[in-house]
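Query structure, 308 tokens:
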């Protein structure tokens, strides 16, 4: 069997709105309906071998769960175009080997768009020993620069150079743990941290922010320093796998981190993983942006491996 077409329904008399969305925004080509069917209303569209038929229904009820899943070549360009048209795009990373998002048409029907990741089954998460991680420096810095180039981070060349300098110091710190992510032979992400300790700049800044809670959160504690992905590999679950692998490998009973105080993919990941906000709106010395200080206790020990 193979699919000839997918059908959704729309309210009677709303063909003009449907054409504006499906042809004008999604870019589908309208097809001429057979004369015997045209009198029933609705409209048909296609792109390549994909056909979508919209039937007009008097007692219309939108399909909010059942939906077509449409493969597309440039999923980011499509998402950008839809958002520019004031369509809410909801990304979901629970479909292995694919990036995907869902939207609703003007009538409330759900649509899902997917794009396969090349060699998706070969996404690998590997632990890097300090000496190996050091050889990754140029790749790590390149990933960092790409991951944090856009707002709300907007980190330019001087900030990236500062990260590279800090990275060389961090590799030698006690309890250093790092993981990398590769798709086929391409390095696409990294994460690392170490045992937090007195005299370290970040530790002392956060200690002052935490006040009386500092001894609790900064004793026997893992400092989760960084998590970064190449932008085109976001929304594939790679960030969560890196996060879980790093926490599973460190020995401490609690963990702390700082992340910019804005709505970001990183913040959503941490919140979904159970991190709690300890301090809001904190400003580190020599910085303009405000940050959240977050903590996790106890650090979860996944029953299954995050590696494959």
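Result returned for the query:
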């Amino acid at each position: 069997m193979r699919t000839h077409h997918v059908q959704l329904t729309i309210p009677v008399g709303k063909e003009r709105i449907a054409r504006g969305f499906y042809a004008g925004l999604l870019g589908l080509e309208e097809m001429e309906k057979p004369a015997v069917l045209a009198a029933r209303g609705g409209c048909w569209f296609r792109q390549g071998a994909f056909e979508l038929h919209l039937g007009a229904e008097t007692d219309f009820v939108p399909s909010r769960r059942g939906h077509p899943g449409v493969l597309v070549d440039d999923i980011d360009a499509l998402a950008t175009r839809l958002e520019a048209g004031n369509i809410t795009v909801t990304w979901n990373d629970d479909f292995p080997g694919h990036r995907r998002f869902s939207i609703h048409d003007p009538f409330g029907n759900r649509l899902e768009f997917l794009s396969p990741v090349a060699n998706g089954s070969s996404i690998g998460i590997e632990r890097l020993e300090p000496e190996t991680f050091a050889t990754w420096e140029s790749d790590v810095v390149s990933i960092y620069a790409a991951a944090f180039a856009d707002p709300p981070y907007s980190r330019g060349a001087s900030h990236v150079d500062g990260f590279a300098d800090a990275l060389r110091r961090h590799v030698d710190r006690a309890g250093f743990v790092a993981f990398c992510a590769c798709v086929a032979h391409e390095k696409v992400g990294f994460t690392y941290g170490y045992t937090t300790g007195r005299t370290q700049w970040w530790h002392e800044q956060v200690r002052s922010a935490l006040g009386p809670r500092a001894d609790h959160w900064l004793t026997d504690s893992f400092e989760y320093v960084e998590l970064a992905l190449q932008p085109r590999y976001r929304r594939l679950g790679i960030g969560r796998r890196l996060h879980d692998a790093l926490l599973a490998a460190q020995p401490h009973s609690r963990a702390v981190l700082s992340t910019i105080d804005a709505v970001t993919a990183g913040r959503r990941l941490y919140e979904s993983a159970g991190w709690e906000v300890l301090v809001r709106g904190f400003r580190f010395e020599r910085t303009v942006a405000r940050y959240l200080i977050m903590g996790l206790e106890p650090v979860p020990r996944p029953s299954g491996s995050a590696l494959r």
